[in-house]
């Protein structure tokens, strides 16, 4: 059991040369490239105060889970231990499942749920627990299995964008999808063309993936938060804004409520 905590015990090793920059950190760039996972979520918790107060406080769970993803990923790439790998992958899985339970439009709910989001959250938790066991049993295939979750997420995002009437939200959605595909492309070429990156002395595309996938992930969560209010409480008039300047669309996006009213308790999970 303790051997799984040892450095290098993971079967996964990314392109970056091990211990080439620091004698204490296996993949230095892949480790520090997780910094956005620590810097942005506290800002997002602050920006989403109104959303959490008047619509769904569970949104903060997602921001905390993103921090857990960053911490787990940094630990994994610093040690390349099997425990680190599993923590990294499980954190990603739980972010996906929490977002699914929170944001899946009710028009897609199976009939047996009766439109109850709490029931969806329960079944999503059960699936997450079972999937956790499968990830632990087959660590070599985990990264590829998790990558397939991005496809339906992008599909849902595109489908919702086709329904949206706000041009500002639509533009953010297009940027999100573009960054997501760039992130996936970075992940693939790091795996497939490692020798080429080593030859040109830039084996850091997985670090680029970390930066891009964080931007794509939190942007997607912001968009789904907007869609969720628009569908379930349209009278609250959600608005997409940017920090620090609302007229600068490359800032940090967040959602405010134009007509606040007391939230429905059944929305929280």
TrEMBL record:
Instruction: Set out the biological process GO terms recorded for this chain's protein.
Output: ceramide catabolic process
- Enumerate the PANTHER family for this protein: ALKALINE CERAMIDASE (PTHR46139:SF3)
Q: What does this protein do?
A: Hydrolyzes the sphingolipid ceramide into sphingosine and free fatty acid.
Residues engaged in binding Zn(2+): 77, 206, 210
Cellular-component GO terms for this entry: membrane
Membrane topology, record value: Multi-pass membrane protein
- Primary enzyme class: hydrolase
Q: What is its EC number?
A: 3.5.1.-
The family classification in the record reads: Belongs to the alkaline ceramidase family.
**Alphabetical keyword list:** Calcium, Hydrolase, Lipid metabolism, Membrane, Metal-binding, Transmembrane, Transmembrane helix, Zinc
**Which InterPro entries does its entry note?**
ACER
The answer to whether keyword Transcription regulation applies is no
Q: Where in the cell is it found?
A: Membrane
Question: Which cofactor is essential here?
Answer: Zn(2+)
- What residues does Ca(2+) bind to? 13-14, 16, 18, 27
**Protein's UniProt name:** Alkaline ceramidase
Please give the Gene Ontology molecular function terms for this protein: hydrolase activity, acting on carbon-nitrogen (but not peptide) bonds, in linear amides; metal ion binding
Ranges annotated as spanning the membrane = 28-48, 60-78, 90-108, 120-137, 143-160, 172-189, 209-229
> Which positions make up the signal peptide?
none
